Amino acid sequence: MRLKIIIILLISTSIIAENSLFEQANNEYRNQNYSIAISLYDSILNNGLESGELYYNLGNCYYKNQDWANAIWHYEKSLIFKKEQKVLKNLNLTKQKIKDKIEPLPDIFYKKWWLKIVELFKIKIWQTFTLISLWSLLFLKIFEFIKKIRIRYITRTLITLSLFFFLITYSSYNNTYNKEHAIIFVDSTNVNSAPSNNSTILFSLHSGTKVEIIEKIGNWLNIKIENGNIGWIEDAKCKKI
């Protein structure tokens, strides 16, 4: 019993200390001491505490210091926790500051609709919907078996819903976990046709540009940018989100 009380007190003390540190960092930001605020926010991260708000505040600090790559990286990290309009707004504003203005490939209309549906809820909520529909289908089948009746309309509806929710959950999982991205953190880097400095240079990327990582071979990353172009860059030239 005493051990539990001690553990609870230690956890409570730690939370209070982190909240105090967070407030100190916020005060430094308000006083325009952005480098000090960054140091304080980083101290919280180093203690293993992450949140969308923390990354958002760090992004704002780096924006004020005109460190566009770090600002974009932290805004992207914030969006992983929660897609808030204020974060998206600041991210888009920061992207206007970097050199590379890459126009994304236009999505087919049905892909846009599907993505909007997928992004309505987090993956856990879609998983819950899927499980509810599957369990409902199972209970209906048990009911039909016991009562020796068939309710085809409801059965077909539940099968359709189960499949629909499963596909959304699968898409949400791929968007959240199967895609890895990074931000270019050097002034300029060549993108090669193969994982070698002796290969053909296809194009160049600059600080702050976001890339999707397709695969890794040694110290090289096969990357894709928003316009669909692909190539290879050295791992050290970017920072994974």
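Above is the first protein from milestone M3; the second protein from the same milestone is given next.
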Amino acid sequence: MSMAKQAIAFGVGLIVLSLICYVLASSNVGVTVDPAKGKASSVTLFIPAIFGVLLAVCGSVALKDHLRKHAMHAAAAIALLGGVLAGGRGASKLSGLSEAISSGNWLAPLSVWLMTFICLAFVAVCVRSFMAAAKARREAAANG
């Protein structure tokens, strides 16, 4: 699968994560997203979707050969930012994680850590691809 299509797939994954969290929070399936408000905040639930849309757009732009390199570097930067921000948010809440889960607020930490994993997994895929492309360019220059 091309890197552009992978960017689109990872973006769709983040969008689906947001949609699933929204449906779970809205249906109150044993989930309390914000005990103080008693309901889910749609803005925070859709943060993964925002990053997902950005990744999917970069992937779509990268389908054009002359824009591929720049679009994929932008996608990697967006995913890195999303992974670092989500991971930082998750790490800052680690001390209260067991209390949140026992009180039924398991959806928020789960979505944060899933976003972190998805974003950083995409960054790892990008780095591997960028290294392979650089190696191929060096070999072509040496042979040609």
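Note on the second protein: The longest helix spans residues 107-143.
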